[in-house]
Write a structure and sequence with these properties.
The complex is a heterodimer. Chain A is globular and about 50 Å long. Chain A has five helices and five strands; from the N terminus they run ββαβββαααα. In chain A, 34% of the residues lie in helices and 16% in strands. By secondary structure, chain A is α+β, with helices and mostly antiparallel strands. Chain A has a five-stranded mixed beta sheet with strand order 2-1-5-3-4, sandwiched between helices. In chain B, 28% of the residues lie in helices and 23% in strands. Chain B is built from 19 helices and 26 strands. In chain B, strands 3-5-1-12-9-10-11 form a seven-stranded mixed beta sheet, with helices on both faces. In chain B, a hairpin with a 6-residue loop joins strand 21 and strand 22. In chain B, 61% of the residues are buried. The chains are: A alpha+beta, B alpha+beta. The interface between A and B is large, with 58 and 57 residues.
């Protein structure tokens, strides 16, 4: 299959990569760009470990054909915080014990971020719905939901100021 | 005993959490080495067949294919994918029943061949070019059918048809005498499903062979040291020339990789040796489901003799378990199942008989709880029946019979602590126990119920397996501490908990502790992370190593301060005198002065753990839709005697996660097979594990009975969160409907059928 140039915006930076029509977004991120923070748990859009934000919406990057990303804006876990300036979600996940094996964590945080980007006063039901496609086998989700709520509160206070 | 700790007992931030939150944490599936090839596996479409012919020429000719491995060009050393070859205690012999590839396939998904190629897609294309001619053999799927005379032989066994290892027999007192003394005798048989660990990172390994033949394998194993032993044996290498390590993170385990990660390690290594390049093997999710160990399914019968006053006189348990096509943990698990099933309650006359049976389905091995969830489901379901029939409150009849310190049981170690009564009382208060049995919403199509169940487990694998730990603590020249333990952190908080223990003993701040884990080259032998042992057993080794290092420091500092070592202690990184508040010296100074004299403080911890029973009481509030049979769990309470919580938030996380997995075991999770041995539930879409929307309010209650045998009083926690969950939910469903189930999961279909039959 002939390779094509894919142009898109990744974590705020424009870039172009050569991809095959058969490539999925997760493969481009992990294998070509070395961004292994996005995990691959099933390859079928069933576990959410590969969740990234595409044009403001959370998507399973393992079922997004790479070429569908043309001109899109993609956010991955690597783009939302730094050790010295964590995203409030990252901070809450760390502080409230919402991380165990950590394999679902990047996808979970990205799903939660897509929610908080549009709703800073989510109910528990909103949070459950937002992460319903993200499987976590370690935590029982309770501390994850608490962390998302806490992050929303932090972000809201900041916004209100 | 000192009760006020500086670091232990505090919910400090997990030391691995920052990397994991930022996406920079490295897992096996993230590894990419220069020149690395990708390995893919060809799997059997048949449940039982002989490979008459296998032709790999076309696959080998495909451009980009660097190696093809089959039973014709790989090791002929038999092994067990689980760590039993390291753990089995003589006179029992480990069951070694498989090769990397064999000329016979024994289940749908069994390994036939593997390809290493320059890309995943080339490797996949090459698999399709391998030509295999099978001669089909008769197959069997049920363990009771599998042990019959006429059943097809899956492996030759000495003890009985298709029975691996030994039949386990445990006995105390005289059960027949006990049944004769009873006023009532209850006997029930329960059927258990196949559950899957479904850890988020699939089985994976990357193998590299250096020019001098030294082997390095990065993998998802829970037990690097035993895994090294298995690999060295398969490939006839000195243990010292094989390095196995986690990189350092593992995307969950839950027992599925105690020993090898299914066969990811030996397949990657065989391909790397053939191709002379590093090879990465990552199972896809379907392979992970069909071709890596599950929880044992099977049948458990419980017979109990009871006096009118509710006191047990005799108990007999028997179990026939389905271990699938290869034994894995099938020889050891029946022993734990029986011992835990008997040990929750005191009963003077007890007996257990149990064993596994080979069948032509996916192998069953270790999964969180290792026999206890099966045993406790049966025992605690029957306990509810006994309470009901005799007219006792379920908690009160348990109170009469629970094991208490000082009483006899079948285990070779004593019960030194129990917080079970406190667990039951606090859990009952949290769930509103007095509302149980009160009919609600009789006019509606929903029925609510409350149920409970108690449970117990172990804090390491002795006496069922070999169990010991080693650790090093080295004091650096600046007074900071380095800790080395071979145990992995599969998300359970190992790195943090062990560091907290070392910091506590050494009297330094947590940020002064550095840690190396899960690497056979830089840590001493250590069994690994299984059997709820990491905090209890590996922790005991870390404490011993830290005590050893501290002793050396205090002896050295005593000379400098002109006092005795007994007069000294360390706090906040400073060595203080007990008798003279003015007398002190920073640890950094003691360390650097020792260094100038050519000395480093090196603490070694070498321990054989005792064992201790963690106790738990689970409570469930459920709602059942009597029109559809749907069971909705509204609230779960888990009160756990953990001995001592080294890091309470980590402990809560273990319990909540266990509860969710137990909830799945109770109402939705099951792998079924069609009539020809093909699994019907081979992915997340078809295997109904709980997602966030299925999780009710979970309340974890920590009870600390301080076991004298554990580090700082701690007992095992990791597996305990799901041990009584299924029974608690099943008992709650009984409270709601008045229908008793003898089989899980309580799916809509099963409950609907039962409701219909009742009508």
């Amino acid at each position: 299959m002939q390779k094509k140039v894919l142009q898109f915006k990744l974590n705020g930076e424009s870039l172009a990569v050569l991809v095959s029509p058969a490539d999925t977004l997760v493969d481009v991120l992990r294998d070509q760009l070395g961004l292994t923070g996005t995990k691959k748990g099933c390859g079928k859009g069933e576990c959410g470990a590969c969740t990234v934000i595409m044009n403001g919406k959370s998507v399973n990057s393992c079922i997004i054909p790479a070429l569908q990303v043309m001109d899109a804006e993609i956010e991955t876990i690597e783009g939302i915080g730094k050790p010295e300036k964590l995203h409030p979600l990252q901070e809450s996940f760390i502080d409230l014990g919402a991380i165990q094996c950590g394999f679902c964590t990047p996808g979970m945080i990205m799903s939660a971020k897509a929610l908080l980007d549009i709703n800073l006063s989510p109910t528990t039901a909103d949070i459950k719905e937002a992460i319903a496609g993200n499987i976590c086998r370690c935590t029982g989700y309770t501390k994850i939901e608490e962390a998302v709520l806490a992050a929303a509160d932090k972000m809201k206070i900041k916004e209100d100021r | 005993m000192k009760k006020d700790y500086a670091v232990v007992g505090k919910s400090v931030r997990k030391l691995d959490a920052m990397e994991k939150a930022l996406g920079t944490a490295t897992y096996t599936t993230d590894i990419r080495l220069p020149g690395m090839l990708y390995g893919k596996v060809l799997r059997s479409p048949h449940p039982h067949a002989k490979i008459v012919k296998i032709d790999t020429h076309k696959a080998e000719a495909l451009p980009g294919v660097m190696a093809v491995a089959t039973h014709l060009n790989t090791s002929k050393v038999k092994f067990n994918t689980s760590a039993t070859s390291t753990f089995t205690i003589p006179p029992l012999q480990p069951v070694e029943d498989q090769y990397i590839f064999d000329s016979v396939v024994r289940y749908v998904g069994d390994e036939v061949a593997a390809v290493a190629a320059v890309s995943k897609s080339v490797a996949e294309a090459a698999l399709k070019l391998i030509e295999v001619e099978y001669q089909l053999l008769p197959a069997v799927y049920d363990p009771i059918e599998g042990m019959q005379k006429g059943a097809p032989e899956i492996h030759h066994c000495e003890v009985g048809k298709n029975i691996p290892g030994e039949k386990i027999h445990i006995e105390m007192g005289d059960v027949e005498k006990g049944f004769a003394e009873a006023d009532y005798v209850f006997e029930h048989t329960f059927k258990l499903p196949v559950q899957k660990q479904a850890q988020l990172e699939t089985q994976a390994a990357v193998a590299q062979v250096a020019v001098d033949g030294k082997v390095t394998v990065w993998s998802t194993t829970q037990t690097p040291h035993p895994t090294r032993r298995i690999l060295a044996t398969i490939f006839s290498l000195p243990y010292s020339k094989v390095r196995v390590l986690n990189p350092p993170y593992i995307g969950g385990g839950f027992g599925v990789r105690i020993g090898l990660s299914a066969k990811a390690e030996p397949i990657a290594l065989a391909l790397a040796m053939l191709a002379k390049k590093p090879v990465k093997v990552v199972y896809d999710r379907k392979e992970d489901f069909t071709s890596s160990d599950t929880r044992h399914s099977g049948y458990i019968t419980v017979k109990t003799g009871v006096k009118k006053d509710g006191i047990f006189t005799s108990r007999k348990i028997s179990a026939t378990l389905n271990t699938g096509a290869y034994c894995s943990w099938g020889a050891e698990l029946p022993g734990v199942l029986g011992a835990m099933g008997l040990s929750l309650y005191y009963c003077p006359n007890q007996m257990y008989d149990g064993h596994s049976v080979y069948t032509n389905i996916t192998p069953a091995g270790a999964m969180r709880g290792f026999g206890s969830p099966q045993a406790i489901y049966a025992v605690e379901s029957q306990m509810d029946i006994i309470a009901d029939e005799l007219g006792f409150d379920p908690i009160e009849i348990r109170r009469k019979n629970i094991m208490r310190p000082g009483k006899d049981w079948v285990l070779p170690y004593p019960c030194l602590s129990s917080g079970l009564e406190e667990c039951m009382d606090r859990g009952a208060a949290e769930i509103d126990w007095q509302r149980r049995g009160k009919p609600t919403q009789q006019h509606s199509t929903k029925r609510r119920g409350i149920g409970m169940a108690a449970g117990t487990h172990v804090s390491n694998s002795w006496p069922f397996c070999v169990d010991y730990s080693n650790a090093y603590v080295t004091v650096q020249q600046d007074g900071s501490i380095h800790l080395a333990s071979g145990v992995p952190d599969m998300g359970t908080g190992t790195i943090t908990t062990l560091s907290q223990m070392a910091a506590e003993v050494m009297g330094v701040a947590l940020d002064q502790v550095g840690i190396t884990i899960a690497d056979t080259e830089s840590t001493p032998f250590e069994i690994g992370s299984h059997a709820s042992r990491t905090c209890y057993a590996s922790g005991t080794a870390v404490v011993a190593a830290a005590e050893d290092a501290k002793k050396q420091i205090l002896e050295d500092a005593a000379k400098t301060l002109n006092t005795s070592p007994e007069d000294l202690y360390i706090a906040d990184g400073i060595v203080y005198s007990l008798s003279n508040a003015e007398l002190n010296i920073p640890l950094s100074k003691v360390a650097v002065e020792a260094h100038l004299r050519g000395k480093q403080f090196i603490g070694v911890g070498r321990i054989i753990p005792k064992n201790a029973p963690p106790y738990l009481a689970h409570f469930a509030k459920v709602e059942v839709d009597i029109e559809t049979g749907k069971v909705t769990v509204l609230k779960m309470v888990a009160a756990h005697d953990v001995g001592k919580a080294i890091n309470p938030v980590i402990v809560e996380g273990q319990l909540e996660g266990g509860l969710a997995m137990g909830l799945g075991y109770a109402i939705s999770e099951e792998i079924k097979f069609d009539g020809k041995g093909t699994p019907l539930n081979d992915g997340f879409h078809k295997y109904m594990l709980p997602t966030a929307v299925d999780i009710p309010e979970l309340k974890a209650i920590i009870v600390e009975a301080n076991d004298p045998s554990g580090p700082f009083g701690a007992k095992g926690v990791g597996e305990t969160g799901l041990i009584a969950t299924a029974a608690a939910i099943s008992n709650a469903v009984y409270d709601a409907l008045g229908i008793r189930f003898f089989e899980i999961p309580l799916t809509e279909e099963r409950v609907y059928k039962a409701l219909k039959e009742r009508k």
